[in-house]
Amino acid sequence: MAFSRPTREQLAAAAGTTIPDVLRPGLDVLFCGINPGLYSGATGYHFARPGNRFWPALHASGFTPRRFDPSEQDELLDLGLGITNVVNRATARADELTDDELRAGGVRLAAKVAEYRPRWLAVVGITAFRTAFDRPKATVGRQPDPLGETRVWVLPNPSGLNAHWTPTTLAEAFADLRNSVYSE
Q: By C-alpha distance, which of 63, 60, 26 is closest to 181?
């Protein structure tokens, strides 16, 4: 079920809005975006902008049996997957967030992980992870320090603006996580 494209006015009105998490206790993986974009804020769906490569990478890596539409995000729960964000407020670009917002988001995210106890937390965006968790030298992949009992993995940002990662290499990074999740 695809959703209708938001208008320019709806996108502008989405600035600063929040969208609900896709979350329940005991997930295999909690994917964590940086923050909702205006498209997500306007539609209420995570990774909703048509150029975002999250949903294709999720499928190509084997996490989902088919490519889900953002409007089907709640179906992830049946697969043991969820979605949240480091910062809740929608912006046009992630670089509109301050370092203080990212650090505060890291504290909120750690509390959410302690409450819901996913097996893995996958932060989608290396720069946001570095700032939110004060890990300036972190690289993509498995992180050495868990959050409590939850193991942490950092994935590249799937935004179409992140041209350094192709659809193929992005899917490979997601597949690396999937292989670790289901082999342990």
A: 63
Task: Give the integer Cα–Cα distance in Å for 56 and 45.
Answer: 15
pLDDT band at 4 (very low <50, low <70, confident <90, very high): confident
% of the chain surpassing 70 pLDDT = 96
Q: Residues 6 or more apart from 6 whose CB is under 8 A from it? A: 14, 38, 39, 42, 43
Secondary structure (3-state) at 1: coil
- pLDDT number for residue 159: 76
Residue 92 phi, psi dihedral angles, 5° rounding: -70, -35
Look at residues 58, 29, 22 and name the one whose alpha carbon lies nearest to residue 151.
29
Token pair recorded at residue 49: 């902008």
Q: Cα–Cα distance between 56 and 49 in angstroms, integer?
A: 12
**Tokens (6 digits) for 40:** 């997500």
pLDDT tens for each residue of 146-176: 999 999 999 998 876 666 888 899 999 999 9
Say if CB 28 and CB 70 are below 8 A apart: no
Domains of the chain: 26-183 (3.40.470.10)
